[in-house]
Amino acid sequence: VGFKAAMAEHGEKSGKIADTVMGDFGPIDEIKKEVKSTQFLGYESCDTHGRVVGLVESDQRQQSLAESPRQDQILVLDRTPFYAESGGQVADVGMVTGPAGVFRVTDVQKDGGIHVHHGHVVEGTINEGDQVSATVDPDRRNAIRRAHTATHILHHALQSTLGSHAQQRGSKVTDDWLRFDFSNLQAVSAAELAKIEEIARERIGAASRVQAEVLPLADARSRGAMMLFGENYPDPVRMISIGDFSRELCGGTHLDNTSDVGGFEIVAEESVSSGTRRIEALTGLRAQENRRLTELSLIHI
């Protein structure tokens, strides 16, 4: 299995795959039968060229989409840099520019092997068969990468502080914000939270390399990759290694170096259910702004 095929399968199996509203016998199903799969190029680039292979509006297959700021429209490309929501990571947003129009991408979901780009035409027209340029919003993508890499670092800091039982039970990653659910029987104390934050910041400041590689599942297991109980993993798998302290199986987008996470601030800790706690944290620009506001409030006390 090739790198991109393995990653597409891992993305599907490691997160919730949203179904389209058309069901199994609508226009998306028709496009799937024709196209089979989308080539995902988003690990390598935020800007790629591709061809429009399917358009949908009002639950009907279309040959062309015109400007419609309020109507949800769907576009399918043969190749895309847009990450589809999966594994707790939100989808990319951005623009698809063709010879006669521009399509704004506001959400991306996987349906079988294809990436379904939701949004609307903001200028001119987009036609099936158009050769287009697909561009992910780079600032938002980088903010998501910061938060996702920080999620792995937080997982390490939790286990270092609370013990190996503090394993992931769910996560949500968006631009410079993360939510992480983990197993723990009682609330995390203020002292423990301070220690977790300290470890995370130390790991971020150490400027450790973040590396993604595809390898057989057995090799990942032998190298100590963290595997979540009850999770079904493809073979081969994509493993994210951070320095020498974190190895997790993950299909999401990540930084190349921990120093690029920037700031890290834990802003909430609460119970989700019996035996499961939740931490929310900020990274990058949001973390820096949160720290600035906190320091200002302390000055005025």
**Biggest sheet details:** 6 strands, antiparallel, barrel
Please, what is the average pLDDT? 91
* Run of helices and strands: HHEEEEEEEEEEHEEHEHEEEEH
Strand-residue proportion? 35-45%
Number of helices: 6
Structural class: alpha+beta
Kindly state the number of beta strands: 17
What oligomerization state is this entry in? single chain
Categorize the overall geometry.
Answer: globular
Report the span from N to C terminus.
60 Å
Helix residue percentage: 25-40%
Low-confidence stretches: 1-8, 11-23
Strand order of the largest sheet: 2-5-9-8-7-10
Radius of gyration: 21 Å
Helix and strand topology:
Elements: H1 3-13, H2 27-35, E1 39-40, E2 47-57, E3 60-61, E4 64-66, E5 73-77, E6 79-80, E7 94-97, E8 101-111, E9 114-127, E10 131-136, H3 138-162, E11 168-174, E12 177-183, H4 190-205, E13 210-215, H5 217-222, E14 237-242, E15 246-249, E16 264-273, E17 276-283, H6 284-299
Parallel strand pairs: 1-6
Antiparallel strand pairs: 2-3, 2-5, 2-10, 4-9, 5-9, 7-8, 7-10, 8-9, 11-12, 12-17, 13-14, 14-15, 16-17
